[in-house]
C-alpha cells in the first residue's frame, strides 16, 4: 500500500538503496550522459550491456557468414522469433510454444483481429474501452472497415466515468450476447490502472467471447500468469519496461487451443518449416505460433531482447515487481509529504494490486514542468493534458533517483520555474 512507513531525508533513500537486492543490476545498464536521471523507462527502456553484446554478436555473424547467418547454430537466427518467444513467455507463464517475437504491437493487433474476429449476424461486436492507447483503436477500426462494416455499428465502447480509471463492472455488463471479441489493456497507459485479467477473461469466456490483452504497459514490470488466466491472445511491445531498444520487434501470444485457426495475415515465414523453401504458391500454415509471423524476422531489432531477457531471468519478475511497487509507493509518500502545497497530486491507483509501474503525477502546468525537469537533468514523460508519468524502473533506478526527482519538483513548484518556458508542444513530448 502507499504511504507505508517511509521516512524523509536523503540518508533514508540511500539506506533503502543499500538494502536493495536488485541494486547490482543498475551497472548492467548504461546511464545517460551527464548523470541525468531517467524516469521514462516505461516509454523506452535504457540500453544494457547485455543487449549491446547480443547485438554485436549478431553483427559479427553477419559479417563473417553472410546469408549463412540463417543456418549457424542449427538455425538459431532462423528460428529466432520462436526462441526469444520461449524465453519471453516465461515472464507471463505462457506455454513454451505460445509466444513469438515479431512485427510491432499495432500489426500484431491487426493479425489477432483478422484471425479471431469472425462476425456473424448475431455476434459481431468488438468491445473496447475509451482509455486505451490510440493505435489499438486505429487497428480495430481499420479491421472493421476492411470487412465492410461501419465502425459505430460494430464497436462497443466502455466509457470511463472520470477519464482516469475503467470500471470492471461496466466492462462485464457490456459483455452481451452480440459481442464477438474484446480487446483491453492490462494496464492503462496514463493512470497505470491494472485491470483484473483473470476476472475479465473468465467473464468473457463464460459468455463465449474471445478476449485479447495488450500488455504494453505491464510486461516486464508486472508478473502475469497465463496458465491461470488462459486468454485467447495477447500483444505487447518489447521496448518499454523490457528495454529491448527503440522499435524492437514485438510479442504476440496465442493460446495453443487456437493453433488450428487460419491466420488472418499470412506470409512465407508463417509457412511450415518443411515446405517454406519449396516456395509453392499454396500457403501451408505452420501448426504453431510460427503461423503468426509474416515476413523475414527483423534480426537487428530482436537481438537486444535476447540480451536483456537474460537480465530478467537473473533478476526474477517477482523481485522486480516488489521493488517497483516499493519505488512508486515511496514516490507517492514523498509527493504527499513534500509536494502537495505546490499544486501537485497523483491520479493513479494506490492499491498495490491495481497499480502498474508508474506514478501519474498531475499538475495544471504539467507540460512546462516537464521542460523544467529536463533543465534539472531529469527525463520525465508527459501525457496530455496534465500528466507527468514517473516510472522508476526496478532494474536501474534507485531510491536516491526518486528522492532527487522530488527535490527538483519541489524547487520547480516553489519558484514556479515553468514560467520560464513556452507551452508550445514539441514533435515528441
Ligand atoms: C506503446 C503502446 C503501443 C505501441 O504500439 P507499436 O505498434 O509497438 O508502436 C500499443 N499499445 C499500447 C497500449 C501501448 O502502450
How would you explain this protein's 3D organization?
With 429 residues, this protein is an alpha/beta fold. 36% of the residues lie in helices and 11% in strands. The strands form 3 sheets. Strands 2-8-7-6-5-3-4 form a 7-stranded mixed sheet, with helices on both faces. The chain has a 4-stranded antiparallel sheet with strand order 9-10-13-12, covered by helices on one side. Strands 1-11 form a two-stranded parallel sheet. 47% of the residues are buried. The structure holds pyridoxal-5'-phosphate (PLP).
**Percentage beta strand:** 5-15%
**If strands are numbered along the chain, what order do they take across the biggest sheet?**
2-8-7-6-5-3-4
Give me the secondary-structure category.
Answer: alpha/beta
Helix content: 25-40%
Shape: globular
- Number of helical segments? 15
End-to-end Cα distance, whole Å, is 31 Å
Largest sheet: 7 strands, mixed
**Which stretches are low in confidence, meaning pLDDT under 50 for 5 or more residues running?**
none
Bound molecules: pyridoxal-5'-phosphate
Give me the Rg, rounded: 22 Å
Mean pLDDT: 96
Tally the beta strands.
13
Order of helices and strands: HEHHHEHEHHEHEHEHEEHHHEEHEEEH
